[in-house]
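Question: what's this shape?

___
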Amino acid sequence: MTGFPAGSRARTAFAVAMAAGLALAVSGCGSSSGSSAAADGTVTITVNDMPAKTDPVNRKIFLADVSAFEKLHPKIKVVPHEGQMDPQTFATKLAGGQLENAFYVYYTDPAGLIARHQAADITPYLSQFPAVNQVKPQLRKVFQDANGHTYGLPEGNYSMGLVYNRVLFQQAGLDPDRPPTTWDEVRADAKRIAALGHGVVGYGDYSKSNTGGWHFTAEMYSRGGDVAKQQSDGTWKADFDNTTGQAVLRQLHDMRWSDGSMGQRQLLEWADLLQMMGAGKLGMYLATADNIPTIASQYKGDPKDYGLGPIPGGRGTLAGGGGFMFNPKDTPAQIKAALAWVTFKYENPGRIDLGAQRAARAGQPVGLPEPNIWTGAAAAAKAAADKKYANQPVANYAPFEQSLPGIPLVLEPPKAQQIYAVLDTAMAKVLTQKDADIDGLLSDAAKQVDSLLAAQ
Protein backbone atom coordinates (compact mmCIF):
# COMPACT_ATOMS: atom_id res chain seq x y z
CA MET A 1 0.00 0.00 0.00
CA THR A 2 1.40 3.32 -0.97
CA GLY A 3 1.32 6.27 1.36
CA PHE A 4 0.97 6.32 5.13
CA PRO A 5 -1.20 6.05 7.06
CA ALA A 6 -4.42 4.77 5.55
CA GLY A 7 -6.66 7.73 4.92
CA SER A 8 -3.92 10.33 5.03
CA ARG A 9 -3.78 10.43 1.24
CA ALA A 10 -7.41 11.19 0.49
CA ARG A 11 -7.48 11.74 -3.26
CA THR A 12 -9.14 14.98 -4.21
CA ALA A 13 -12.26 14.96 -6.31
CA PHE A 14 -10.83 17.01 -9.13
CA ALA A 15 -8.08 14.46 -9.73
CA VAL A 16 -10.49 11.58 -9.47
CA ALA A 17 -12.93 13.26 -11.83
CA MET A 18 -10.52 14.07 -14.69
CA ALA A 19 -12.06 12.80 -17.88
CA ALA A 20 -13.04 13.50 -21.41
CA GLY A 21 -15.08 11.91 -24.13
CA LEU A 22 -13.05 9.80 -26.46
CA ALA A 23 -15.61 8.00 -28.61
CA LEU A 24 -14.56 4.43 -29.10
CA ALA A 25 -16.38 1.65 -30.90
CA VAL A 26 -15.94 -1.44 -28.76
CA SER A 27 -17.11 -4.85 -29.82
CA GLY A 28 -16.17 -8.46 -29.23
CA CYS A 29 -17.19 -11.67 -27.62
CA GLY A 30 -16.19 -13.86 -24.73
CA SER A 31 -16.11 -13.01 -21.07
CA SER A 32 -13.89 -12.80 -18.01
CA SER A 33 -14.28 -11.61 -14.46
CA GLY A 34 -18.02 -11.38 -14.70
CA SER A 35 -17.91 -9.32 -17.89
CA SER A 36 -19.63 -10.24 -21.13
CA ALA A 37 -20.23 -9.16 -24.71
CA ALA A 38 -23.85 -9.26 -25.79
CA ALA A 39 -25.09 -10.30 -29.22
CA ASP A 40 -25.45 -6.65 -30.21
CA GLY A 41 -21.80 -5.96 -29.37
CA THR A 42 -22.42 -4.39 -25.96
CA VAL A 43 -19.53 -5.10 -23.56
CA THR A 44 -20.05 -5.17 -19.81
CA ILE A 45 -17.02 -4.40 -17.64
CA THR A 46 -16.45 -4.43 -13.91
CA VAL A 47 -14.32 -1.69 -12.34
CA ASN A 48 -13.46 -0.77 -8.78
CA ASP A 49 -12.52 2.44 -6.95
CA MET A 50 -16.13 3.51 -6.36
CA PRO A 51 -16.23 5.50 -3.09
CA ALA A 52 -18.13 3.92 -0.20
CA LYS A 53 -21.55 5.11 0.94
CA THR A 54 -19.79 6.81 3.83
CA ASP A 55 -18.32 9.22 1.24
CA PRO A 56 -21.57 10.38 -0.38
CA VAL A 57 -20.11 13.41 -2.20
CA ASN A 58 -17.50 11.45 -4.16
CA ARG A 59 -19.79 8.46 -4.61
CA LYS A 60 -22.36 10.73 -6.27
CA ILE A 61 -19.67 12.17 -8.56
CA PHE A 62 -18.48 8.66 -9.44
CA LEU A 63 -21.94 7.41 -10.35
CA ALA A 64 -22.64 10.57 -12.35
CA ASP A 65 -19.48 9.87 -14.34
CA VAL A 66 -20.61 6.28 -14.97
CA SER A 67 -23.86 7.63 -16.41
CA ALA A 68 -22.06 10.20 -18.55
CA PHE A 69 -19.64 7.58 -19.83
CA GLU A 70 -22.38 5.12 -20.74
CA LYS A 71 -24.25 7.84 -22.59
CA LEU A 72 -21.12 8.59 -24.61
CA HIS A 73 -20.40 4.87 -25.11
CA PRO A 74 -23.77 3.14 -25.47
CA LYS A 75 -22.08 -0.18 -26.27
CA ILE A 76 -20.27 -0.30 -22.90
CA LYS A 77 -21.94 -1.13 -19.57
CA VAL A 78 -19.95 -0.29 -16.43
CA VAL A 79 -20.53 -2.27 -13.23
CA PRO A 80 -18.72 -0.43 -10.40
CA HIS A 81 -17.38 -2.00 -7.21
CA GLU A 82 -16.15 -0.30 -4.04
CA GLY A 83 -12.54 -0.45 -2.88
CA GLN A 84 -9.20 -1.15 -4.55
CA MET A 85 -7.00 -4.17 -5.15
CA ASP A 86 -6.29 -6.10 -1.94
CA PRO A 87 -2.95 -7.98 -2.15
CA GLN A 88 -4.24 -10.52 0.38
CA THR A 89 -7.14 -11.65 -1.80
CA PHE A 90 -5.89 -10.73 -5.28
CA ALA A 91 -4.64 -14.15 -6.39
CA THR A 92 -7.82 -15.85 -5.18
CA LYS A 93 -10.05 -13.36 -6.98
CA LEU A 94 -8.02 -13.71 -10.18
CA ALA A 95 -8.11 -17.50 -10.10
CA GLY A 96 -11.82 -17.53 -9.26
CA GLY A 97 -12.82 -15.11 -12.02
CA GLN A 98 -13.86 -12.41 -9.53
CA LEU A 99 -11.20 -9.81 -10.32
CA GLU A 100 -12.48 -6.65 -11.98
CA ASN A 101 -11.62 -5.92 -15.60
CA ALA A 102 -9.95 -2.68 -14.47
CA PHE A 103 -8.66 -2.57 -10.90
CA TYR A 104 -7.00 0.14 -8.82
CA VAL A 105 -3.46 -0.53 -7.51
CA TYR A 106 -0.87 1.45 -5.58
CA TYR A 107 2.47 2.28 -7.16
CA THR A 108 4.20 -0.46 -5.17
CA ASP A 109 2.04 -3.16 -6.79
CA PRO A 110 2.68 -3.08 -10.60
CA ALA A 111 6.22 -4.50 -10.69
CA GLY A 112 5.18 -7.68 -8.91
CA LEU A 113 1.96 -8.10 -10.89
CA ILE A 114 3.84 -7.66 -14.16
CA ALA A 115 6.54 -10.15 -13.15
CA ARG A 116 3.89 -12.73 -12.23
CA HIS A 117 1.91 -12.13 -15.44
CA GLN A 118 -1.10 -11.04 -13.42
CA ALA A 119 -1.98 -8.00 -15.53
CA ALA A 120 -2.82 -7.53 -19.20
CA ASP A 121 -0.39 -5.91 -21.63
CA ILE A 122 -2.25 -2.84 -22.92
CA THR A 123 0.54 -1.60 -25.22
CA PRO A 124 -1.26 -2.52 -28.50
CA TYR A 125 -4.28 -0.37 -27.58
CA LEU A 126 -2.67 2.83 -26.31
CA SER A 127 -2.51 4.54 -29.71
CA GLN A 128 -6.30 4.85 -29.50
CA PHE A 129 -5.97 6.92 -26.32
CA PRO A 130 -3.63 9.85 -27.15
CA ALA A 131 -4.22 11.73 -23.88
CA VAL A 132 -2.07 9.09 -22.17
CA ASN A 133 0.97 10.74 -23.75
CA GLN A 134 0.42 13.88 -21.65
CA VAL A 135 0.92 11.97 -18.39
CA LYS A 136 4.35 12.38 -16.76
CA PRO A 137 6.76 9.78 -18.18
CA GLN A 138 8.13 8.89 -14.73
CA LEU A 139 4.62 7.95 -13.61
CA ARG A 140 3.88 5.94 -16.75
CA LYS A 141 7.12 4.05 -16.20
CA VAL A 142 5.74 2.61 -12.94
CA PHE A 143 3.39 0.50 -15.07
CA GLN A 144 5.97 -0.64 -17.63
CA ASP A 145 8.29 -3.63 -17.81
CA ALA A 146 11.96 -3.63 -18.78
CA ASN A 147 11.03 -3.81 -22.47
CA GLY A 148 8.78 -0.75 -22.30
CA HIS A 149 5.49 -2.65 -22.50
CA THR A 150 2.66 -0.96 -20.57
CA TYR A 151 0.32 -2.73 -18.16
CA GLY A 152 -1.51 0.14 -16.50
CA LEU A 153 -2.23 3.86 -16.31
CA PRO A 154 -1.53 6.36 -13.49
CA GLU A 155 -4.45 8.03 -11.74
CA GLY A 156 -2.84 10.23 -9.10
CA ASN A 157 0.44 10.92 -7.33
CA TYR A 158 2.03 12.52 -4.31
CA SER A 159 5.50 13.21 -3.01
CA MET A 160 6.99 14.41 0.26
CA GLY A 161 7.88 18.00 1.01
CA LEU A 162 8.34 20.27 4.02
CA VAL A 163 5.17 21.69 5.59
CA TYR A 164 6.02 24.77 7.62
CA ASN A 165 4.36 27.51 9.65
CA ARG A 166 4.83 30.83 7.87
CA VAL A 167 3.77 32.83 10.96
CA LEU A 168 6.43 31.21 13.14
CA PHE A 169 9.00 31.75 10.40
CA GLN A 170 8.24 35.47 10.42
CA GLN A 171 8.32 35.66 14.22
CA ALA A 172 11.72 33.93 14.21
CA GLY A 173 13.10 36.40 11.65
CA LEU A 174 13.06 33.87 8.80
CA ASP A 175 11.77 34.50 5.28
CA PRO A 176 8.48 32.55 4.87
CA ASP A 177 8.93 32.55 1.11
CA ARG A 178 12.30 30.80 1.39
CA PRO A 179 11.96 27.60 3.44
CA PRO A 180 15.11 25.58 4.13
CA THR A 181 16.34 23.37 1.31
CA THR A 182 19.14 21.51 3.12
CA TRP A 183 19.17 19.56 6.38
CA ASP A 184 21.73 21.97 7.82
CA GLU A 185 19.30 24.82 7.15
CA VAL A 186 16.47 22.82 8.74
CA ARG A 187 18.54 22.43 11.88
CA ALA A 188 19.49 26.11 12.02
CA ASP A 189 15.93 27.32 11.36
CA ALA A 190 14.47 24.87 13.88
CA LYS A 191 16.73 26.30 16.60
CA ARG A 192 15.54 29.84 15.85
CA ILE A 193 11.89 28.79 15.89
CA ALA A 194 12.22 26.81 19.12
CA ALA A 195 13.88 29.87 20.71
CA LEU A 196 10.50 31.63 20.49
CA GLY A 197 9.51 29.65 23.59
CA HIS A 198 5.93 29.18 24.83
CA GLY A 199 6.00 25.49 23.93
CA VAL A 200 6.92 26.03 20.28
CA VAL A 201 8.79 23.14 18.65
CA GLY A 202 11.13 23.90 15.76
CA TYR A 203 10.97 20.56 13.94
CA GLY A 204 8.83 17.49 14.54
CA ASP A 205 9.27 13.87 13.56
CA TYR A 206 7.52 10.54 14.03
CA SER A 207 8.57 7.37 15.84
CA LYS A 208 5.45 5.25 16.40
CA SER A 209 2.88 3.10 14.56
CA ASN A 210 5.08 2.71 11.45
CA THR A 211 5.24 6.48 10.92
CA GLY A 212 8.81 6.66 12.23
CA GLY A 213 10.06 4.16 9.68
CA TRP A 214 8.10 5.93 6.98
CA HIS A 215 9.84 9.22 7.76
CA PHE A 216 13.23 7.56 8.16
CA THR A 217 12.76 6.24 4.62
CA ALA A 218 11.81 9.68 3.31
CA GLU A 219 14.85 11.21 4.99
CA MET A 220 17.13 8.52 3.54
CA TYR A 221 15.79 9.25 0.05
CA SER A 222 16.26 13.00 0.55
CA ARG A 223 19.98 12.40 1.15
CA GLY A 224 20.35 10.16 -1.91
CA GLY A 225 20.21 6.94 0.09
CA ASP A 226 17.87 3.99 0.09
CA VAL A 227 16.25 1.61 2.52
CA ALA A 228 16.24 -1.57 0.45
CA LYS A 229 18.27 -2.34 -2.65
CA GLN A 230 17.57 -5.00 -5.26
CA GLN A 231 20.50 -7.33 -5.90
CA SER A 232 21.68 -8.69 -9.26
CA ASP A 233 19.85 -11.97 -8.61
CA GLY A 234 16.55 -10.14 -8.05
CA THR A 235 16.52 -10.43 -4.25
CA TRP A 236 16.41 -7.43 -1.91
CA LYS A 237 18.60 -6.43 1.02
CA ALA A 238 18.58 -3.62 3.57
CA ASP A 239 20.59 -0.59 2.48
CA PHE A 240 20.53 1.84 5.39
CA ASP A 241 23.23 0.56 7.74
CA ASN A 242 25.72 3.03 6.30
CA THR A 243 26.90 6.63 6.54
CA THR A 244 23.61 7.95 5.13
CA GLY A 245 21.57 6.13 7.75
CA GLN A 246 23.95 7.38 10.42
CA ALA A 247 23.50 10.96 9.18
CA VAL A 248 19.70 10.70 9.39
CA LEU A 249 19.70 9.45 12.98
CA ARG A 250 22.59 11.66 14.09
CA GLN A 251 20.84 14.80 12.90
CA LEU A 252 17.63 13.89 14.73
CA HIS A 253 19.56 12.95 17.88
CA ASP A 254 21.47 16.23 17.88
CA MET A 255 18.41 18.35 17.19
CA ARG A 256 16.60 16.61 20.03
CA TRP A 257 19.35 16.51 22.64
CA SER A 258 21.94 19.19 21.74
CA ASP A 259 19.68 21.86 20.22
CA GLY A 260 16.46 21.21 22.11
CA SER A 261 14.56 22.14 18.95
CA MET A 262 12.34 19.04 18.75
CA GLY A 263 10.60 19.38 22.09
CA GLN A 264 10.43 16.88 24.94
CA ARG A 265 7.27 15.05 23.85
CA GLN A 266 8.21 12.16 21.57
CA LEU A 267 6.82 8.82 20.33
CA LEU A 268 4.59 10.81 18.00
CA GLU A 269 2.36 9.31 15.31
CA TRP A 270 0.50 10.70 12.31
CA ALA A 271 -2.14 12.99 13.84
CA ASP A 272 0.19 14.43 16.49
CA LEU A 273 2.20 16.68 14.17
CA LEU A 274 -0.91 17.89 12.34
CA GLN A 275 -2.46 18.81 15.69
CA MET A 276 0.68 20.65 16.78
CA MET A 277 0.79 22.53 13.48
CA GLY A 278 -2.89 23.47 13.76
CA ALA A 279 -2.28 24.81 17.27
CA GLY A 280 0.58 27.02 16.05
CA LYS A 281 3.17 25.11 18.10
CA LEU A 282 5.24 23.47 15.35
CA GLY A 283 7.61 25.06 12.87
CA MET A 284 8.25 22.29 10.30
CA TYR A 285 7.77 18.62 9.48
CA LEU A 286 7.88 16.34 6.43
CA ALA A 287 4.50 15.71 4.83
CA THR A 288 2.47 15.63 1.65
CA ALA A 289 0.51 18.59 0.34
CA ASP A 290 -2.87 17.27 1.46
CA ASN A 291 -1.82 17.61 5.12
CA ILE A 292 -2.51 21.34 4.89
CA PRO A 293 -6.28 21.19 4.23
CA THR A 294 -6.49 18.43 6.86
CA ILE A 295 -4.78 20.67 9.40
CA ALA A 296 -7.37 23.32 8.56
CA SER A 297 -10.45 21.12 8.58
CA GLN A 298 -9.66 18.85 11.52
CA TYR A 299 -7.28 20.88 13.68
CA LYS A 300 -8.60 24.41 13.22
CA GLY A 301 -5.56 25.84 11.48
CA ASP A 302 -5.73 28.68 8.98
CA PRO A 303 -4.51 27.49 5.54
CA LYS A 304 -2.91 30.89 4.89
CA ASP A 305 -0.50 30.24 7.78
CA TYR A 306 1.17 27.26 6.13
CA GLY A 307 3.69 26.83 3.35
CA LEU A 308 5.05 23.86 1.46
CA GLY A 309 8.72 23.65 0.58
CA PRO A 310 10.85 21.05 -1.18
CA ILE A 311 12.14 18.06 0.70
CA PRO A 312 15.42 19.09 2.34
CA GLY A 313 18.46 17.69 0.59
CA GLY A 314 16.57 17.34 -2.65
CA ARG A 315 18.33 14.16 -3.84
CA GLY A 316 15.11 12.14 -3.84
CA THR A 317 11.58 12.30 -2.51
CA LEU A 318 9.38 9.47 -1.35
CA ALA A 319 6.58 9.28 -3.87
CA GLY A 320 3.44 7.27 -4.23
CA GLY A 321 0.04 7.17 -5.76
CA GLY A 322 -1.96 4.72 -7.77
CA GLY A 323 -3.55 3.84 -11.04
CA PHE A 324 -5.34 1.10 -12.92
CA MET A 325 -4.27 -2.24 -14.28
CA PHE A 326 -6.26 -4.70 -16.34
CA ASN A 327 -7.29 -8.29 -15.79
CA PRO A 328 -5.00 -10.68 -17.72
CA LYS A 329 -8.09 -12.72 -18.63
CA ASP A 330 -9.72 -9.75 -20.38
CA THR A 331 -10.60 -10.10 -24.04
CA PRO A 332 -9.36 -7.38 -26.40
CA ALA A 333 -12.88 -5.91 -26.38
CA GLN A 334 -12.88 -5.76 -22.60
CA ILE A 335 -9.44 -4.17 -22.50
CA LYS A 336 -10.53 -1.46 -24.94
CA ALA A 337 -13.75 -0.87 -23.03
CA ALA A 338 -11.90 -0.68 -19.72
CA LEU A 339 -9.30 1.69 -21.20
CA ALA A 340 -12.10 3.87 -22.50
CA TRP A 341 -13.54 4.07 -18.98
CA VAL A 342 -10.22 4.74 -17.23
CA THR A 343 -9.23 7.47 -19.67
CA PHE A 344 -12.69 9.01 -19.54
CA LYS A 345 -12.74 9.28 -15.76
CA TYR A 346 -9.11 9.64 -14.73
CA GLU A 347 -6.81 10.43 -17.65
CA ASN A 348 -8.16 12.97 -20.08
CA PRO A 349 -7.45 16.71 -19.89
CA GLY A 350 -10.78 17.71 -21.39
CA ARG A 351 -12.62 17.62 -18.08
CA ILE A 352 -9.92 18.97 -15.76
CA ASP A 353 -11.87 22.21 -15.44
CA LEU A 354 -15.07 20.32 -14.60
CA GLY A 355 -13.26 18.27 -11.98
CA ALA A 356 -11.87 21.37 -10.26
CA GLN A 357 -15.26 23.06 -10.42
CA ARG A 358 -17.00 20.08 -8.83
CA ALA A 359 -14.35 19.79 -6.11
CA ALA A 360 -14.65 23.47 -5.23
CA ARG A 361 -18.44 23.24 -5.15
CA ALA A 362 -18.17 20.27 -2.78
CA GLY A 363 -15.80 22.15 -0.48
CA GLN A 364 -12.83 19.95 -1.28
CA PRO A 365 -9.34 21.41 -1.71
CA VAL A 366 -8.45 22.92 -5.07
CA GLY A 367 -5.04 24.43 -5.73
CA LEU A 368 -2.75 21.91 -4.06
CA PRO A 369 0.37 21.22 -6.13
CA GLU A 370 -0.40 17.49 -6.08
CA PRO A 371 -1.90 15.25 -7.25
CA ASN A 372 -0.77 16.34 -10.70
CA ILE A 373 -0.04 13.65 -13.26
CA TRP A 374 0.15 16.00 -16.25
CA THR A 375 2.71 17.53 -18.59
CA GLY A 376 2.37 19.92 -21.54
CA ALA A 377 -1.02 21.33 -22.43
CA ALA A 378 -2.76 19.22 -19.79
CA ALA A 379 -0.49 20.64 -17.08
CA ALA A 380 -1.37 24.13 -18.31
CA ALA A 381 -5.06 23.23 -18.15
CA LYS A 382 -4.67 22.06 -14.56
CA ALA A 383 -2.81 25.25 -13.60
CA ALA A 384 -5.58 27.34 -15.14
CA ALA A 385 -8.29 25.36 -13.35
CA ASP A 386 -6.42 25.63 -10.04
CA LYS A 387 -6.18 29.39 -10.45
CA LYS A 388 -9.82 29.70 -11.44
CA TYR A 389 -11.30 27.59 -8.63
CA ALA A 390 -8.58 27.66 -5.97
CA ASN A 391 -9.73 27.55 -2.37
CA GLN A 392 -6.16 27.01 -1.11
CA PRO A 393 -3.33 29.59 -0.81
CA VAL A 394 -1.60 28.53 -4.03
CA ALA A 395 1.28 31.02 -3.71
CA ASN A 396 2.35 29.39 -0.43
CA TYR A 397 3.21 26.18 -2.29
CA ALA A 398 5.46 27.81 -4.90
CA PRO A 399 8.77 26.67 -3.32
CA PHE A 400 7.63 23.04 -3.50
CA GLU A 401 6.18 23.28 -6.98
CA GLN A 402 9.22 25.02 -8.46
CA SER A 403 11.64 22.44 -7.07
CA LEU A 404 9.70 19.29 -7.84
CA PRO A 405 10.81 18.74 -11.48
CA GLY A 406 14.44 18.48 -10.38
CA ILE A 407 13.93 15.98 -7.54
CA PRO A 408 13.84 12.25 -8.39
CA LEU A 409 10.70 10.38 -7.32
CA VAL A 410 11.49 7.21 -5.35
CA LEU A 411 8.89 4.58 -4.48
CA GLU A 412 8.47 2.82 -1.17
CA PRO A 413 10.52 -0.35 -0.56
CA PRO A 414 9.07 -3.87 -0.77
CA LYS A 415 7.24 -4.88 2.42
CA ALA A 416 7.12 -1.20 3.28
CA GLN A 417 4.88 -1.35 6.33
CA GLN A 418 6.82 -4.23 7.91
CA ILE A 419 10.09 -2.37 7.30
CA TYR A 420 8.62 0.81 8.76
CA ALA A 421 7.65 -1.08 11.92
CA VAL A 422 11.26 -2.23 12.34
CA LEU A 423 12.66 1.25 11.76
CA ASP A 424 10.25 2.78 14.28
CA THR A 425 12.51 1.40 17.01
CA ALA A 426 15.59 3.23 15.75
CA MET A 427 13.66 6.50 15.43
CA ALA A 428 12.10 6.11 18.87
CA LYS A 429 15.37 5.40 20.64
CA VAL A 430 17.37 8.31 19.20
CA LEU A 431 14.53 10.65 20.18
CA THR A 432 13.99 9.25 23.70
CA GLN A 433 17.48 8.08 24.75
CA LYS A 434 20.31 10.58 24.85
CA ASP A 435 22.89 7.77 24.84
CA ALA A 436 21.29 5.82 21.98
CA ASP A 437 23.74 3.60 20.08
CA ILE A 438 23.12 4.71 16.50
CA ASP A 439 25.44 2.16 14.91
CA GLY A 440 23.90 -0.65 16.91
CA LEU A 441 20.35 0.44 16.12
CA LEU A 442 21.05 0.47 12.39
CA SER A 443 22.82 -2.88 12.49
CA ASP A 444 19.99 -4.55 14.41
CA ALA A 445 17.35 -3.04 12.13
CA ALA A 446 19.21 -4.12 8.99
CA LYS A 447 19.32 -7.74 10.19
CA GLN A 448 15.58 -7.70 10.82
CA VAL A 449 14.83 -6.11 7.46
CA ASP A 450 17.05 -8.63 5.66
CA SER A 451 15.00 -11.41 7.26
CA LEU A 452 11.76 -9.79 6.11
CA LEU A 453 13.00 -9.36 2.57
CA ALA A 454 14.35 -12.91 2.40
CA ALA A 455 10.86 -14.20 3.17
CA GLN A 456 9.27 -12.51 0.14
About this structure: Residues 51 and 185 are 42 Å apart (CA to CA). Residues 1-35 have pLDDT under 50 and may be disordered. The chain has two domains: 13-159+319-401, 161-318+403-454. The chain is about 40% helix and 15% strand.
